[in-house]
Amino acid sequence: MANTDFRLQFQEFEDDEGFIERNQGATTVTIDDPIKSRKQRKAIGTDFEEEDNDDKTELLSGEKKSPPFWTFEYYQTLFDVDSHQVRNRIIGSVLPWPGKNFVEVYLRSNPDLYGPFWICATLVFVIAISGNMSSFLVNYSQPKFKYVPDFRKVTMAATAIYSYAWLVPLALWGVLTWRNTKITSLVSYSFMQILCVYGYSLSIYIPSAAQ
């Protein structure tokens, strides 16, 4: 009977603080409010979804903020081409197709300075070597002739070629910009696109200068 009365009696338990102090080494398990935890997960998931949506929007839009022209990143994009693109642009400038726009077919929105720079450099050295070779062949029959390479031809050719490759596109870009303020229906090209077109157009002069 004593045992039965003990079982029927209500036992008073200690508060949580006293129980925890006694059992500091024991492992405790806490059960969170399911409604509260769901709200927290939803809030965290919403933040991640917003960040993912922002990233997807930037990628799908394809609009990248162009760096300022005085930074290295701005000029790095102008040399971001491969050999396949350069070869196609050279072929397109030497053998133009009627009715096809070179800017729309080959350049699009990715003009480069890699091809024009090396085309101009190659043309400079070809002109200088051809000039020295011509002077050598003209004076070769003279008995007192002593061949001395004329390096001034390199500087003269470099000044003429690079000035033409920069100043003519700059002048044309200025004229087109001025005309666009008067006539809005004209097709406008950027300065880099015009510079790229003129640079690749000089590739046809390389075999001509070598002959």
Automatic annotation (TrEMBL):
Highest taxon listed in the record's lineage: Eukaryota
Major localization class: Golgi
Membrane topology: Multi-pass membrane protein
Residues in the signal sequence: none
Pfam families associated with the record: Yip1
Domain Yip1, first and last residues per copy: 93-208
GO molecular function, one term: small GTPase binding
InterPro entries tied to this protein: Yip1_dom, Yip5/YIPF1/YIPF2
Alphabetical keyword list: Membrane, Transmembrane, Transmembrane helix
Region of interest: Disordered: 40-60
GO process terms (BP): vesicle-mediated transport
GO cellular component, one term: Golgi membrane
Segments passing through the bilayer: 113-133, 154-174, 186-206
Localisation per UniProt entry: Golgi apparatus membrane; Golgi apparatus, cis-Golgi network membrane
Keyword Membrane set for record: yes
Family: Belongs to the YIP1 family.
Listed name of the protein: Protein YIPF
